[in-house]
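In the laboratory, one determines a bound structure by crystallizing the protein with its ligand and collecting diffraction data. In a computational setting the workflow is compressed into a single prediction: the sequence and the ligand go in, and a structural description comes out. We illustrate the idea with tryptophanyl-5'AMP.
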Amino acid sequence: MSTKRILSGIQPTSDSFHLGNYLGALKQWVELQDGNDAFYCIVDLHALTGDIDPTLLRKRILTSAAQLIALGISPEKSTLFVQSHVAEHNQLGWIMECIAGFGEANRMTQFKDKSAKGGADSARVGLFTYPMLQAADILLYQAHYVPVGEDQRQHIELTRDLATRFNSRFGETFRIPEGHILKSGAKIYDLQEPTNKMSKSSGSAAGVLEIMDTPEANIKKIKSATTDAGREVTFDEKEKPGISNLLTIHSALSGESISNLENQFAGKGYGDFKSAVAEVVVEYLRPIRERALELLQDEAHLVKVLHGGADKARSVASATVADTYKNLGLVL
Ligand code: TYM
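The predicted complex, in structure-token form:
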């Protein structure tokens, strides 16, 4: 495969990324940085669309960077940066808002879900315009592929629509990106409510496996995961969503196929299976958490790495903005 441009982003909205983020997106980020030209962005401006706590936000941006490096994003191989360091995101974001229709923005299910949670009146305008900023994030870098989880599919479709519309009205300006969404792992479910996705905004932390949690906390969460009727460890998303989710997690981390796992646990019951899942998860996450904590000891170094990434990102992004402005008839 020839070198492709990759772009993706993650919000620094919690003290830790969770296993859904990792298996749906971040694991792909690590794989795709080899042999491609990858840009990975901590989307701090997107995080401003929810409640803002300045002390927490700063800490979470740095913890995000530490986790990304600890889980394998190499600042030498890929361009790792913070969105607010590259002003071009805001510049192209505004252009995308002027290209998007109110109706299509209004159809975004993530906006509907999030605004419904807090009550429509408390939702910010920024939450509504969020997908246009996300489109800008992607289009600025002329990305071929955008590795994300299933929940981002609609935002990628919107990005493609906006880029296609812009190109046909104002001339070829943007590459039309494609989502890079896995067949297995694209949606990891909450351990307590295995029909809902694992999410940082979930009501209870008990169903969310966090990279920065202690091994003991994660073992406890897995052992108290909701299971299903029966006692066979078999993959059946309809009848056994809890066990199927745990099978997906085990398989994605251990590399063993789901059918092998089913055979291995035939006749053994849920208790043994959960202990095995706990062991796999905890041993996988242990070195990542330890490395992230180590990296957080030297904030100045982390900030320096992020500034270096922003310089590289800006050089690509500014060329796209110049092209966009020119094609729109703005005087440069
Ligand atoms: P965010 O920060 O909510 O999530 C980061 C990534 O994790 C994936 N993900 C999941 N995958 C599988 N199972 C889950 N339970 C699960 N929960 C989250 C998400 O799909 C995502 O890939 N709008 C984006 C951030 C963004 C972005 C971008 C992404 C802003 N600009 C440009 C790609 C390109 C978001 O809120 O992701």
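The pocket of tryptophanyl-5'AMP is lined by residues 7-11, 20-21, 24-25, 43, 46, 134, 137-138, 146, 148-149, 151-152, 155, 186-188, 197-199 (CB under 6 Å). Keep in mind that any predicted model is a hypothesis to be tested, not a measurement.
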